[in-house]
Amino acid sequence: MRTDIGNALGGEPALTRDALDELDADVAAAHERIAAGMADDEFGYAALNLPETADPDRIRTAVAPFADSAAVLTVGIGGSALGAATLANALESDVDAYFLDNVDPEHTSRLLDGLDLSRTAVNVVSNSGTTAETLSNFLVVREAMDSAGVNWTERTFVTTGPEGNLRNLAEKHDLPALDVPAGVPGRFSVLSTVGLAVAAIQGHDVDAVLAGAADERERLAGSLYDSPAYAYGATTYALAERGAVTNAFMPYAESLETFAEWFAQLWAESLGKDGQGQTPARALGATDQHSQLQLYRAGPRDKLVTLVRPTERADRDVPETDLEGLSYLGGQSLGTLLDAEFEATEASLTAADCPNVRLEIDRVDERGLGELLFGMEAACVCYGELADLSTFTQPAVEWGKRAARGLLGGGEFEEAEAVRGKDRLVVE
Ligand SMILES: O=P(O)(O)OC[C@H]1O[C@](O)(CO)[C@@H](O)[C@@H]1O
């Protein structure tokens, strides 16, 4: 991964090279803290050891019974689905991957109606084993398998923590069970069983994903100028401190669209604490040049844009044409157009004083994805250290869970009373 922060300087919010140089001493201290946390496999920091501690052979052995699958359906939510989805949606495979990471009844029914469940591996993923959406979807999928005459215990494996409902289910029905590594929050778990089991079933090179991640891990250093990950973490933090409260994350590759969704959870759930944080706005190039770019260039000076691209990609020629006014496009290629628009958008943001950062990998392949995923995780941890945040927890998401559980009769929760007592002002 390469991080180009040249366009992050001189815009508005204003960030100078001197300010970054001054911040570099804090980056050195942050690196020391991170290195110590990694050395002791501390909660959260353990995620940055996964390039070394993940066991691809163990994963491949666990999913070997499902090698004949035509599809793999993951039932999970948040970090228990987005990492695997990032890899699945970025890479080609003969084995289709589907994800049930919401409880939208129409979507769930449509997805299940379209699946041959007799040839689908079902991967139920929940670290806690208590997530209502995941458990509800599992019960629906199991019923659908029963209705299809499929022995669900032969097509299902779980990825979960050491105890809880899924662990009990696996033990009761002797299901293959993969362990969620200890000390790794869901949004940091892609480089583990949680993110790699689907990739293994799809035949992707899991070792190459981990190798790319390991390369980026090797480049963690005591200066932001020596580490692409820390350069990104420190620069986004410094811009946030100066008013960039939004980070528009804009990959120029359809294959990286889900990666932006994964990044959004990582960034929001890790850094949105104590009134701080930076809102990740998911965007896609070139498409969002025809929508959100207007806001980025001419709206409030409260954001930065992160532009992500591979420097190599398969291409497709645009045929020559004698159509009036289109001749300049004929004979080009779609990749040439996409790259020209990437660079034009980057320059247009800079011309409008909108700070922007360029992240590049060679190709969207297993190694490049490993570099990006680890790089963003390490950048996030660096930002969290600089901001003195509790990067690895997410207490604010619990209120809504208690309210919903109360509304469903799952216990007495004052949050549910607050829902029932909502002030209403309906306009119809
Ligand atoms: O793996 P679990 O325990 O089902 O959690 C799923 C997701 O829900 C959260 O815990 C938030 O509720 C995320 O941090 C996590 O990725």
UniProtKB/TrEMBL annotation:
Gene transcribed to yield this protein: pgi
Name the UniProt record assigns to this protein: Probable glucose-6-phosphate isomerase
InterPro entries linked: G6P_Isomerase, Phosphoglucose_isomerase_CS, SIS_dom_sf, SIS_PGI_1, SIS_PGI_2
One family name in Pfam for this protein: PGI
PROSITE patterns: P_GLUCOSE_ISOMERASE_1 (PS00765), P_GLUCOSE_ISOMERASE_3 (PS51463)
Cellular compartment(s): Cytoplasm
Any one GO biological process: glycolytic process
GO terms for MF: carbohydrate derivative binding; glucose-6-phosphate isomerase activity; monosaccharide binding
Main location: cytoplasm
Active-site residues, as the UniProt record annotates them: E269 (proton donor), H290, K401
Family of this protein: Belongs to the GPI family.
Function as written in the Swiss-Prot or TrEMBL entry: Catalyzes the reversible isomerization of glucose-6-phosphate to fructose-6-phosphate.
Alphabetized SUPFAM superfamilies for the sequence: SIS domain
Pathway assignment: Carbohydrate degradation; glycolysis; D-glyceraldehyde 3-phosphate and glycerone phosphate from D-glucose: step 2/4; Carbohydrate biosynthesis; gluconeogenesis
Enzyme Commission number, as recorded: 5.3.1.9
Group of enzyme by EC: isomerase
Keywords of this entry: Cytoplasm, Gluconeogenesis, Glycolysis, Isomerase
PANTHER family for this protein: GLUCOSE-6-PHOSPHATE ISOMERASE
Top-rank lineage group of the source organism: Archaea
Catalytic activity: alpha-D-glucose 6-phosphate = beta-D-fructose 6-phosphate
A Gene Ontology term for the protein's cellular component: cytosol
